[in-house]
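Late entry, written up from scratch paper. The run itself happened at the end of the previous shift, but nothing got recorded in the book at the time, so transcribing now.
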Amino acid sequence: MNMDYLLLVTIHGFLGDGESFKHFPTDVANDLKSHGIKFEIENYAYPTSGDNSLRVRELTEFLLERPGRPTVIICHSMGGLLAADCIRAITSLKSSGTWGPSVQETVGADTPRSDAEYANGQIARVPGLEGEEDMNALRKRAKAVDVLGILAFDSPFFGLHAVVMEHGTARAAQTAERTMETVTSVMNSFGSRTASQVSRTATTASSSSWLSVVAGAAATLGVVAAASAAYKDPMIRKYVADKSTAVAEHLTFLGPLWRVGHQTARMEAIDTMVVQNQLSFRCFFLKLSTSQQSKSSSTFINMPPRNFERYFVPIEMTKPPDVIRAHTHLFDASGDSAAYVALLLATSEAIVEILRNRNIK
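Output as recorded:
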């Protein structure tokens, strides 16, 4: 199969934007030139708040508008979960003409459902974005989408590392209301701004990725760890709902961090697609060197069960003092330059392998 141009789509993480990747996509694409691969880069920007099913459908529509384009998705942090759920939705549209289990069901967000239940029409689905949807038309459009692979970077497919979460739990237990007041204040500042203003704020911070933007307000662990732990408490959920719609909307988006059943179902679906040669998948995660591990946890993300370990590839970092800084400086070439180069080459090699496996030239 001949390919005119490979489409690289970048998907940022929580409170990020297209600038979160800095020069990384361009550096990857430039390295691909040495392999004779032509490319185009598109940054997918989206609001990191609200119902995940809506975010999945919006990303799906974005890809449906690019039919016949061999595509590799590069995604950071929560963007990896969004990309995975989007591909599940597209696969379901192709096979059964339904949105499938990656689009949240109305029967309960914490109850994972099988593909068969959706295909058989046993479960109600979230209403469409606007009015009635022609599912046959969507199915035809979905069949033209050609996503070759997903390359995720430090994406918490199985949640945050236990040590990171322990810090968040301790903070939430000690000062739950104060923690959520802090989160409310920070999130309100985002909720009252336009997307471009949020982007400028993120870029001005020490890193444009989501934890560094709010690190000052939530001390060393970041809002996500504190909020993830705190939001499990129904009293805190009620406090958030009463105090700030903006906070509740952002925490709703972070729901996959603590939906354990959905985490397994998501990866099982990805594993099936890989085995059937429908998709290539890899998650690069940052790991502190042995000398740094005594100071904090060695990884930001929680590690996967053994049966999924083959999809997760460590990239060792030596300079960041902790995993949070490692996560927020993932695409900072001026930081740990050796780790950046290793990540760059691993990404380029992964894309070359994806094309080779699909016999695309």
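Residues 201 and 213 are 8 Å apart (CA to CA).
(Scratch paper discarded after transcription.)
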